[in-house]
Amino acid sequence: MVTEKRYEVGATVDEAAQAMFNRQLATYRKITRENLMYHREVYDILRGILIAEAPVPFRFLDVACGDASASAAMLQGTAIAHYHGIDLSALSLEIAMETLRSLPCPVELHCRDFAEALGNWAARVDIVWIGMSLHHLQSAGKRRLMEDARSALGEPGIFLIWEPTYLEGEGRVERANGTLQDRLVKEMRLAGISTMEAGNAFLPTFMEDYNKRFAKLPFNDKDLHRPLAEHDDIEDAFAWKEERTVSFNLTLQYDKVLFMLEPNEITRPLARQRVMIFDYPDGRFAIKYKGRSLPYKTFDKLQQVDQAAIVENKRLGPILAMIAEQQKQMDMSRSNKARRRRGQRTSLFKVG
Question: Which InterPro entries match (predicted)?
Fold first, then answer.
């Protein structure tokens, strides 16, 4: 039941920001509906945490709640006693009003900038949840919001954050390299450089000018790099890693290949346990449990019949040829989520 909808507007809400939020609402709802950013999985995890760890009953503060559709579904059947939602978009809160009517508790919606609202928050809550919104604040604003969230929480209280993180190749160094390469190409074009020799001769001048314009002194110039320790494993650090659950039959799947663990005293107890897959850049592959490599066999679902097999098996030649033709019509590509394999000379994931 919705018992109150509180709008705290006026000087705290910028009209241009409201308009931008409202324009983006349709895009946001499509993203959540299509699960493009794994909202369903995240909110399943959140629900599990609330059921296992939240006080009974609990008061829930949903920071930057939007239309609250994901939260409303997640909170069904939990011990929620009071729901508070904060969002800058009045249109989103109008939708949230209807979405949250099924909750068996009072609901209060606050139309306000979430950082400012938390800075003036008075009601005590047990859970503070902010999803995909903290990154809008600068570092000082993030620290201040975390302090305000801590002040709003009772004892015991839980502060939960969901934020995106950079994948490999998306960090600051990679972005800086992209900027540098783009700027360098344009500077060379402006300087009329068209040969490798002229480009190499131009680099020292470019670097000096670039550093004068953009370089900043570090707060601390101490070199904090450390030498490798004996336990540091660089090969494992640079491998593509994914977790899998071992089936009761001691099998698991990865990149359209079925892996069958060889049954022994180590692997038999691993049914329904999580193991780590290591997919190395050079094509090697390992399955490990608590750092220990496990023996396995494979069955590749994308095995193809080649011409050599047709020639060698004269009796089965016509059948193999028919299978080969059928395979040409099938999608024999690997998973788009797995690592790319350019440059791997040997790999059990090669097709053909």
Answer: Methyltransf_25, SAM-dependent_MTases_sf
pLDDT surpassing 90 at residue 100: yes
Strand order in the sheet with 274-279: 240-245, 274-279, 285-289, 292-293
- The total number of residues shown for the chain amounts to 352
137, amino acid identity: L
Partnered with residue 288 across adjacent β-strands are 276, 293
Q: How many domains does the chain have?
A: 2
Of 311, 329, 330, nearest to 321 by C-alpha is 311
Do residues 260 and 287 make contact, with C-beta atoms less than 8 angstroms apart? no
Q: Is pLDDT of 343 > 70? A: no
Helix (H) or strand (E) holding 244: strand 240-245
Quickly state the pLDDT bin for 15 (edges 50, 70, 90).
low
Sequence-ordered list of residues with C-beta below 8 angstroms from that of 191, at least 6 positions apart, any chain: 202
- Name the burial class of residue 100, with classes exposed (0-12), middle (13-18) and buried (19+) by CB atoms within 10 angstroms of its CB: buried
The CB-side HSE value for 259 (13 A sphere, CA atoms) comes to 21
Task: Name the pTM for this structure.
Answer: 0.48
Q: Is residue 229 part of a domain?
A: no
Q: How many helices (H) and strands (E) does the chain have?
A: 11, 13
Of 112, 137, 162, at which residue does a domain stop? 162
| Residue 120 φ/ψ, nearest 5 degrees | -120, 25
Closest CA to 206 of 216, 221, 191, 226: 191
CA distance from start to end of the chain: 60
Looking at residue 81, its amino acid is A
3-state secondary structure at position 4 = coil
Please state whether 198 falls in left (phi above 0), alpha (psi between -120 and 50) or beta: alpha
pLDDT digits (tens, 9 = 90+) for 319-335: 556 655 665 565 555 55
Cα separation, 251 vs 296, whole angstroms: 9
Beta bridge partners of 160: 129
Residue 43: which H helix or E strand, with range? helix 39-53
Asked whether 243 and 274 are in contact (CB, 8 A), the reply is yes
Residue 182: inside a domain: no
Where in the sequence is the domain holding 330, given as residue range(s)? Answer: 234-352
